[in-house]
From TrEMBL:
This is IF3M factor. It comes from Grallaria varia. Residues 11-78 form the Translation initiation factor 3 N-terminal domain. Gene3D superfamilies: Translation initiation factor 3 (IF-3), C-terminal domain, Translation initiation factor 3 (IF-3), N-terminal domain. SUPFAM superfamilies: Translation initiation factor IF3, C-terminal domain (SSF55200), Translation initiation factor IF3, N-terminal domain (SSF54364). GO terms for cellular component: mitochondrion.
Length: 129
């Protein structure tokens, strides 16, 4: 089994299952139905079928508008971005003791951003020649 997660989006007409559990765009269950019936419903209401749970029995699909799909993709991207990364990220910054004031302020802001992102920061100050 591949570890790569498929992108969230419309599955179009490529549905490998005969029987599906379908949920309408308002989140109400329409029950189990045959693939052809679900496709007909999709065409009648000008919606798209989206796979929600593949490992359920039968697999769960939801009828969604393009706007709902887009919003869900944004929500998932935001959630993924907010989730902690495995391992600890360490950032390193080094500068001379003769650094100009504005350069020091810029690097200080960068360090503050890294700390906000929960990175470990290592600062090295070299002696000016």
């Amino acid at each position: 089994e591949s570890k790569r997660k498929t992108a969230f989006g419309s599955v179009g007409r490529r549905i490998p299952y005969r029987i599906l559990h379908v949920i309408n765009q308002d989140g109400e269950s329409l029950g189990n139905m045959h693939r052809a019936e679900a496709l007909k419903l999709m065409d009648q209401h000008d919606l798209k079928l989206v796979l929600l749970q593949e490992n359920a029995e039968p697999p769960v699909y939801r009828l969604m508008t393009g706007q709902q799909i887009h919003e869900e993709q944004l929500r998932r991207a935001e959630k993924k971005k907010a989730s902690p990364k495995p391992g600890v990220v360490q950032k390193e910054l080094s500068f001379s003791s003769a650094i100009a004031k504005n350069d020091l302020e810029t690097k200080t802001k960068q360090i503050a951003q890294w700390i906000e992102k929960k990175y470990h920061v290592k600062v090295t100050i070299r002696e000016a020649k």
